[in-house]
Amino acid sequence: MSDRPSDFDPESREDREIAGEAARDRDGFLSLMGHAYRGEMGRMTSWRTRIDRTTNWAVVLTATLLTWAFSSDSRPHYVLLIGVVMLSVFLGIETRRYRVYDIWRSRVRILEENVFANALDPEGVEQSNWRELLSRDLRSPTVKTPIVEAVSRRLRRVYFALISVLVLAWIVRLTVFAASSSEVVDTAIVGQVPGEFVLAAAGFYYATVLVLTFWPGSRQAKGELQSEPEEEWK
Known about the structure:
Layout: H1 13-16, H2 26-69, H3 78-120, H4 130-139, H5 147-175, H6 181-187, H7 195-213
């Protein structure tokens, strides 16, 4: 049996907008915001777990490749480059997940700033139109973090260190058995690909990673964390 009232009309404007009554009732509104906060927090936690899972894969892959590549002199050096490519794939997956995660995180921050923070300190209100902003985003969810910023943040947090380790290990693998620079170029050959091209491509890739990691643009994601507290926490 359905719990829907017999007089409920889904085409009726009044019935479709029945939740609007909560906006005029303080207790109903606060109760609704509590449920909304738990729902958005659940979504945020779920996507945070997905991000962490990708990071774990990347760390395990890096550790496995380093162990295998240096376990014998006969191991091919380009396996480490394949690892860099795989890390780039993981970075792309994690960037997409981070941008989706930030949708739910931004909603949680709006509720924390304008409901819970105001309950503790009503004088600290900053956004007067937060209900309109949240309503608009619930009706039409949008990605709020630019892709360059998302890539830069994931590189700074995790992937720049992992990629740097693999690139450094690859350089060591090339130079440790070479007596001169010409031998390094010869050692860098991958199949029919000249060593000069491999070295140039690796250098260009790492330079791009450096630029993206330390991208100077200001953060556009909602709710930027303070690097230092304005007041001492006691």
